[in-house]
Every structure is written in structure tokens, then in C-alpha cells.
Amino acid sequence: MNIAFLGLGHMGRRMAARLIEAGHELTVWNRTPGNVEIADARWADTPAAAVRSAELVFSMVRDDDASREVWLGDQGALAALPAEAVALECSTLSLPFVDELGQAFRDADRELLDAPVAGSRPQAEAGALIFFVGGSTDAFECADSALSAMAGAVHHAGPNGAGALVKLMVNALFGAQLAAVAELIGFADRSGHDAARAIKILASTPVTSPAAAGSAQAMLAGQFAPAFPIALVAKDFGLVSASGDAVDAKLPLAAACRVIYEQAAREGYADDNFTGV
Description:
Layout: E1 2-6, H1 10-21, E2 25-29, E3 42-43, H2 47-51, E4 56-59, H3 64-72, E5 86-89, H4 95-107, E6 111-114, E7 117-118, H5 121-126, E8 129-134, H6 137-148, E9 151-158, H7 162-191, H8 195-203, H9 210-221, H10 230-246, H11 252-269
Parallel strand pairs: 1-2, 1-4, 2-3, 4-5, 5-6, 8-9
Antiparallel strand pairs: 7-8
Helix pairs in contact: 3-4, 7-8, 7-9, 7-10, 7-11, 8-9, 10-11
């Protein structure tokens, strides 16, 4: 299948490599092409140039503004997208922007899937990401085989916006758990008791998720090499807040967690892994 991939950051380059390994022909674009090497891929100078012959187009960029530029900018991909192509926006985005992007695709009579992922660099490299996909069933079926090359699981969440919603819920739940675990490790330390022993017992109970238990061990070991940096967690909580405001949902816990991660970023930990909180 002829695929275009837009955005080759830490996640995008690994996802693109999986598609090439699966036998797909890839045309790629990145804002700074000199910083990235993708073997056996064709390079394009603009998003529009990358997609002109594509059957599927993936985008994996940082935020709403970057996605808007990739799809809707002066050299954006939407205007050059072939009529039968399916676009997949895999970035973590706010619900208001996903609605805006979906409307732009409908106005252009083109198919969009919002298809963000759970997982970080190791999962992307291993082809073990979890995709949450919003969009039509026909478009989902067209993209399913390519998604499977990068995924451990693929979930069709519903119409446009449903994938983006689930992704924000996943990140908010995970971020809240980690903030709580970090706080409790500090509590145990200051109590004068053995924090590692307390966490081991806590992890054996049903109240502790496997993700929280694993992250607690990384915190205790001081393992903060970036896979999902604190700056991105703070950014995602900002997206959750903006999305909640747009639908008049009250999210006080998410707001409190946003403050915690933003404070960590301000104090010099922005590039640490989320466990650095």
C-alpha cells in the first residue's frame, strides 16, 4: 500500500519504520528532515507533496497547532489528498480541534480517522501500540491492516472524535495515578518507614494498576530517562482541560494534576520521563 507519514519525531519515526517493515511503500515528511533517517522511504518537501499519490496518510505531531499546519496550512495535506485516500491523525489533540478538523474533511468530502495511541517509544518500536480510532466503519476497515503493523491492539471507538476522547481519558487516568503514586512515595519516605516495602505491598493489592506498580518501581529506582516526558504530560492535561471546558464537563482532579506536572516542568524536570514527577 502507498502510505504517507507526516511527522517523524520520537514516535513517528518508529511507527514509520514498522510500516516499511510490513512491506508498505512510504513517502515521508518532517519539519526538520535533516534530523531523521528513515531507510527505504521517499522524502517530500511539504505535506501536500507527500500525500498526492497516497492511499493512507498518517500524521503524528505534537499538538493542535502542529496538526492544523500539517493538514490545513498553505502547503497542507488536505488540499492535495486524493479522493479515495483515508487520513489518520494519530496525534494527541483537543476535542474542539478534532471537531474542527473533522468538519474540514467533511467539507472537502474526504475521510478522516482520529487514531491516537497509547504507548511510548518502546511500544512504537515493537509494534505494540494501542490505537483508539474514531471515524466511519468503511474508513476504519481500509486502514486496519496498516494499523495492525504498528499495534498490539486496535479499538474502533465510534465516530470522529471518539478516538481522541478515549486517548485523553487514558492519559488523564494514567497521569493522575502517577501523581498519586509519587505523592505517596514521598509520604512513606517522610514517615520514616521503608517506602519500597510499602509500595511492594501496595502493588500486590487490587487498588494498584499494573501501570502504576511498574511506574512506582521506576520512581524508587530513579529511572527518569525520557520515554513520555513530563512536558508532554502537562501538555496533555492542558488538552483535557480545554476539551472539558468545550463540553461544560467539570474536571477538578485533572485540573489539579495539570498544576502538578506544570510545576514539575517549571522546576527543571520537563525533559524527564513522567516518573520524574
